[in-house]
Design goal:
Blueprint: H1 17-34, E1 38-41, E2 45-48, E3 53-56, E4 60-65, E5 71-76, E6 79-82, E7 87-92, E8 104-107, E9 121-127, E10 134-136
Antiparallel strand pairs: 1-4, 2-3, 3-6, 4-5, 7-8, 7-9, 9-10
C-alpha cells in the first residue's frame, strides 16, 4: 500500500523537529480545515443530469478554521460547471479571509494519483458515470423557513 500523508521512516530517522514537524504540520492543517467546514449559498443550487451542469444562483461561501485557529471565509461567485462522467467539482480554500476562489472540475481516474487528496481541497460533489446522478459531498440543500417570516 502507498503512503498518502507521510514519508516512511527509516533506521536513519532521528526524532528531531526537522523530520517530525513537517508531517505533523500537514496533518494539523488537514484536520483544522476539514473540521466544521460550513458551505452555504444565498441562491438556489441545481443540477441537471442530462447536461451534467451544476449551477448555483448566488455566491458559494466557505467558512472554515484557518491553520492559525481563526475563522476564515472564502467565496466563489455565482456560476456553473459542466461535469462529464466520473468528474467532480471542487474548490481550493485560501487562508486569506475574504478570498475569491473558483469552482473547478477534474476527473477521477482509478489507479492513478488522487487529485482530491490535497488538505485545502473541498470536493463539492461527483457525477456518476452510469446514472449521471450527482452525489453531493460538501454541498447540502438548506432547510427553508416554512413559517413565512
Amino acid at each position: 500500500m502507498g503512503n498518502n500523508f507521510f514519508t516512511p521512516w527509516t533506521t536513519d530517522t532521528n526524532y528531531t523537529p526537522t523530520p517530525m514537524n513537517a508531517p505533523l504540520i500537514s496533518l494539523d492543517a488537514a484536520l483544522t480545515k476539514g473540521k466544521n467546514l460550513i458551505v452555504h449559498c444565498d441562491g438556489a443550487i441545481e443540477y441537471h443530469p442530462l447536461s451534467g451542469i451544476l449551477y448555483w444562483a448566488g455566491p458559494l461561501r466557505f467558512a472554515f478554521n484557518a491553520t492559525n485557529g481563526l475563522a476564515c471565509v472564502n467565496q466563489a461567485a455565482a456560476g456553473s460547471v459542466q461535469l462529464d462522467d466520473n468528474e467532480f467539482a471542487y474548490v481550493d480554500l485560501s487562508e486569506a479571509s475574504g478570498a475569491e476562489i473558483v469552482v473547478q472540475k477534474a476527473a477521477v481516474s482509478a489507479g492513478s494519483a488522487s487529485n482530491f487528496i490535497a488538505f485545502n481541497r473541498v470536493v463539492l460533489g461527483y457525477r456518476n458515470a452510469v446514472s449521471n446522478d450527482f452525489y453531493p459531498v460538501a454541498l447540502r440543500q438548506p432547510w427553508p423557513n416554512t413559517l413565512g417570516s
